[in-house]
Amino acid sequence: MNIDRRSFLKLAALGLLAVAAKPAFDLISRPSAARALEGPFAGKRLAMVVDLNACTAGDGCVDCIAACHSVHNVPDIGNTKEEIKWLWELDYKRAFPDQENGFVSEPLLDSRVLVLCNHCDNPPCVKVCPTQATWKREDGIVMMDYHRCIGCRYCMAACPYGSRSFNWRDPRPYIDIIQQGYPTRTRGVVEKCNFCEERLSDGLQPACVEACSSGALKFGDLKPGTELYDLISSQFNLRRKAELGTRPQVYYLL
Amino acid sequence: MYDKGKIIGGLAVFLCLASFPVWYMAASGKADYSPDPVLPVSENLCVESAQYMKEYHMQLMQQWRDQAVRQGDSIYVSSDNRTFDINLTGTCLKCHTNKADFCDRCHNYTGTAPNCWDCHNVPPANAPPQVTK
Lengths: 254, 133
Known about the structure:
The structure holds two protein chains of two kinds.
Chain A: H1 5-29, H2 31-37, E1 46-51, H3 63-71, E2 87-91, H4 92-95, H5 106-109, E3 112-116, H6 124-128, E4 134-136, E5 142-144, H7 154-158, E6 165-166, E7 190-191, H8 197-200, H9 207-211, E8 217-221, H10 227-234, E9 237-238, E10 250-253
Parallel strand pairs in A: 1-10
Antiparallel strand pairs in A: 1-8, 2-3, 4-5, 6-7, 9-10
Chain B: H1 4-18, H2 20-28, H3 50-70, E1 75-77, E2 83-85, H4 88-95, H5 103-110
Antiparallel strand pairs in B: 1-2
């Protein structure tokens, strides 16, 4: 068979194209990527609303904190350097250091603000975690996998809210009553609020929301048409350090 | 060969010492010791067959861990289509009520120290009393 140089090159190019077509097609039609978008938590954006007008933290109410810390076996070490906290209170000025408006009503300035992990839409802690022990679920919960945490504390350095605590020692001796329904942590891992994902999967509300008797805490999906969406789209609200671009998902109604 | 006696004698002493654990166990009659974990009386079938659990329970538990924590799916469907809640304390220890007589026996025998229980709870009925502050 006689073949000139030009037709040989043409044939060779066609052959190469045929070989490359299959992987290219697989890449474009990737079924795993499509599945990931339709996981069990897709299409939701869970968020919390704290109504500072209704919250009675300033009057000494700690119902939500007690409930959260009891349900999740959070130890009370009694030493601020080693303290473990999922949900706690701060003075208004410390919770919102960026609010530089000249005059804020005095009751607000003196108020105590309930703070917790903001389950950011753009979580800096997730970006820095070297083992992917912390990651953002499709419904927005910033999760912790204690099995995978190596205790490097990069996430604690990255979190602008101080929402993460490190277990400097075995927490078990510092837990009053160990709740069997939820594991404790061990020395050398970082922990934080998980929006009660274990309760959500049982169809319950987060422990803090359930424990709040003044109705100051609301939790749910944040898509147009939901009660939560109506609430924060109709009232003035703040988010902690929103200017950092973390897109926090705990909204404070004033 | 120089110092033949010393070298051979030294080797003999070394071999005796190095093999001490083997012949000591043989002499004391404990060489055929087996861990004999205590099986639950209430149930006779685990989530998978006993043989599978013996060989692969660690892989199964890692699969459970990843499925429950990473994928958020806490229902395990066994090979014979029974469903189980993925929960070490709530499901495994519900039947294997005595960790010391079940888990620990084989783990001690094989010299493994899994760190499951650093965080996962052992129900108080079977656990040594918790130290409270």
